[in-house]
Amino acid sequence: MSTLDERPTPEADEPEIPTNRPAPLGIVSRWLKRPYARRILQLTVVITAVIIGLTFVMVAFMNMSGGPASDIMNEIEKTMFVLTFVCAPLMGFTLAVITYSWWGGWGMVPADETPTEEGPAIRTNGVAVVVWVSVCSMLAAFLVIWGLVELATITASSYGSVPSNQQPRDAKAIDINVTGQQWLWSFEYPGNGRVTSDVLVVPVNVPLYFNVTSLDVLHSFWVVEAGVKIDANPGAITNTGFTPNKLGTFNIRCAELCGLHHAYMETKLVVVTQQDFDSWIREQGGAKTS
Amino acid sequence: MSTAVAIFEQKHVPQPRQVGKPGGFLRRTNAVTALVSGVVLAAIFYVATGAIVNAVTGGGQQDDLSLPEGLQVQITMMYVGWILGFMGGIGAFAGPIRWFLGHDLTYADAEYMAGKDMGRKKFWKYTTDHKVVGIQYLVVMLVLFGFGGLLAMLIRTELGITWAEVFNPNFYNSLIGTHGIVMIIAMIIAVSGPLGNFIVPLMCGARDMAFPRLNALSIWLLVAAVPPLVSNLLMGGIRDGWTVYQPLADQAPVGMIGYQICIIVFAFSTGIASVNLITTIVAMRARGMTWSRVPIFVYGVMGSAIMGLVWFPMYQYSQILALSDRVLQTSFFTPATGGSVWLYENLFWLLGHPEVYVIVLPATAALLELMPVFLRKPLFSFKLAIAGIFGIVGLSAVVWVHHMYMTGWAPQSNYPFMLSTELISIPFSFLLLVMLGTMWRGKPWARLPMMAVYAVIWNKVIGGITGVYLSDTPVDQYMHGSMFVVAHFHFMLMGAGLFGAMGAIAYWFPKMTSRYFDERYGKIGFWIAFAGFQVTFFAMFVAGLQGMPRRVLQFDNAFNVANWVSTIGAYVIGIGMLVFLYALVISWRSGELAPGNPFGAHTLEAQTETPVPHENFPVLPVVTSDPYDFGVPDPYELEDEELIREAEGASKVGAS
Q1: What is the complex's ipTM, to 2 decimals?
Q2: Which of B415, B457, B547 sits opposite A98 (nearest CB)?
Q3: What is this structure's pTM?
C-alpha cells in the first residue's frame, strides 16, 4: 500500500496519458485468475444450491403430517424460504472457504511436522471488510423488515384485530375458550351454547379466535399443522387465532413442560365442513354435557 | 508488590507481624476437612431445624401432605449447613477472621497460600495461585461434563427406545432438567474457568490474578454448589427442565431446593470470578500492553466476564424469590395468590440468553487466538474482531424476550426484540469474517486445535442459520418449544462452545501440564464425536420440523425414525468423547514433554518456560507490539505493485 501513496501525482495540466494500468474490472478478472478464487466460487455456488434444496426438504418434513392447514402456516413456510434464500449465499461462501482450506487447497502442514514457511502478512483488507460488513448489514436489515411485516400479517390474522381496543371482529368468526390443565385440553364454544369438547372441531375457512388459559401450571397450546402456538398461563388469558383452510385431522400438542405426563397432553384438531360442524354442535348441544 | 519494593528499597517498610506458622489455620484445611465439616454441619442443621420445626408445630402435627412445609425448611437449612460447613472446612473464612483479629497476611503467609513448594497437595487446598485454580477448574469441568454426558446418554436411550417407557416420567423429567443445568454450568466454566484462570494472567504478563484469594473462593464455591444440585436426583428430582418455570417448580419435590441453592451459590462464584478476571485484565497488564496489543482471547474472556457479572444476579434473584416462595410461603411467582409467572420468565431469561454468549464468546476468542499460530498469518482485521466481541456484549442485553415470543406476556414486544435479535447477527458476522480472513490463503498446520476451528465454523454456520429462523417470530411460532430449538442450541452451545473448548484445551494443554496433548487419539476422539454430533442433531432438527415437542418421553410414531437415528448418533458422540478423555488422561500422565512455546506463538504465555515458574515470569515482560506479527510480505500484493510500477514506468515513457 505504501508504494501507492508514494506514487508521484501527475501534474494537473498534464494531458491524459494512455496506460496499461489494470482497469477496475481488470482487478476482478486478475483476482479470478488466482488458482483458489474460481474453486472457492464454484464451491460457493454448489453449497448454496444444496442449502436452498435443503429448504424444500425442511418444509416437506413440516408438511409430513398433513399441513399446511391454515393461512398462518402458509406464511410461515414462505418466510422460511425467504430466510434461507437470503442467508444461503453467505453460508455457502463460509462453508466453501473452510472446505477449501480443510481440504488443503492452500496447502497443509502435516501434524507431525513444524511449519517452516510463514503465510502472507495480510493484516486487513479494507475492501473485504467494507463489502462484508455492508452486505451482512443489508441482509440483516432485510430480514428484520421482512420479519416485522410478516409478524404484522400473522398477528392481524391471529387476532382479527388488536384485542385490547375492542375493534369488531369478523362477524362469522368463532370464539373458542381453550383451557389447559394437567394433562388435557378442553375447548368451550361460548357462541354455540357453551358446548364443551376435548377435541377441537372447527369448520373450514372460518376465522377462529382462541382465549387460552390454564387451571394449574404453564402449558402451551400448539396447533401443529396450523402453525399456531401460545402459552396457557394460569390467571391470565392469552389470545391467538387462525383460519383453517384444509379439511382433515391435525395435531394439537402441549409445547411447554407441564409435569409428569406432559408427553401425553395432546389432542386432535378436526376440520370439517360448515354443515358437519353445525350438526356436530347440535349433537353436542343436545347432550348438554355441561 | 515487586515494583513497590523496587522503588522504595532503601526505606524500611514495616511488615505485618507473623502470627504462628505461615498459613496459620489454612495449614490444617483441605478438601477432606471441608467434606467432613460440610457433612457434619449439614446433619446438625438438619436435625436442629427439625427439632425447632417440631417444637413450633407442636410435635409432628404435620398434615398428611407430600410436601410438608417443615421438611422444606429442614432441607433448605441442611444445604445452608453444607455450604457453610464446606467453605469453613476448606478455610474460606480464615482470611476475614484473621483480618478481624488484626493479623494481616505476611509475605510468608501469601507464599504458603499460593502453594509454594507444596507439591501435589496444593490442588486439594484453598490455594490462591491462578495456575492451581486453573487446573482445579479443568478437573471440575471434566467431572461435570462426564456427569452431564451420562445423563444425556440416558435421555437418548429413553427417546431411542420408542416402544417402552424406560424411566418413570418423574425421573425422566429430572434427567432432562439436571442434564441441562449441569451442562450449562460446565459450559460456562469450560473456557473461562481453566483457561481464563491459567492463561489470561500469563497472557497479560501478570504474576497472578488481581485478587488471588477471591480466585480460590470462586472455585471452592463452585465445588460446594454442585453437590446440592446433583443430590436433587435422590430427593425427588427437578422435574421441570433446566428453566424450572413457575408455578410448575412449586409442585416439585424437595430436590428443587438443591437446584435453587446451587444457582444462588454458583452465581456468587461466577460474579467473583468475573470481577477478578476483569480487574486482572484492566489493571494487571504488562508494561507496553496497550489496548491494541491485548490478545483477542483476553478480550473474549473479558466480554464473557462482563456479561456474567451483569446478568447472573438476575438469575440468582429469580431463584432467591422462588426459594422464598417455597420456604417462606411468599407469592412472587404463584398466580393463584397474586404472583406473576411472567416475572419469573423475565428474570430467568435476562441471564438465560446472555449466558449463551458467556459460553460461546471465550471459546470463539480462543480459536481466534490460535488461528494465527497454526496458519502463520496475522489475525485478519483485529479491530473488527474487538468490535464484534463488544457488539455481542452490548446487544446481548436486549434480546432476552425472544425466549418469550409465545408466552403472551407482551405480544407487542415481539417487534423490537425481533429487531434486536436479528441485529446481533451483524457482530457475529464480524467474527466470522475475521476467521475466514485469517484462514484465507493460509497454509494450515493440521493439528487438533486447527481442526477444532473448522468444526466450530461448520457448527456455527448451522447454528446461525437455524437461529435466524428462530429469531423470526412467525417461524418461531412453529418452532418454539420443539426439538428444533433443542438441536439449534446444541449446535451453538455444544457445537461451537464445547468443540471450541476442546480445541482450546488441546492448544494450551502443553502450557498447563507440560505435556503435549496426544494428537492421534485426540483427533480420533474429536472427529468421532463431531460425526456423531452431526447425526444426532440433524436427526433432531428433523424431529422438530415434524412437530415433536421437547421434553417428552413418549411421542407420536411419526417421530420414531428421527429419534432412532438421533440416539445412534448420541452413542457415537459418547464413544468419541470417551476416546478424547482417554487421550487427555494418557497425555497428562505420560505424554511427550513440551517446551515452553510448543507451537511458536507470540503471546506472553508462550514466552515463559514450562512448567510455569511459581511467580510466572523471572522478569516481568515488556510488550512492544501485538502478538500477531506473523507472515511475510504478500506475494500477490508484491505482484500487484510490480504491475503498478510497470504501469508507472510505461506512463513515464509515454510522457517523455
Answers
A1: 0.90
A2: B457
A3: 0.92
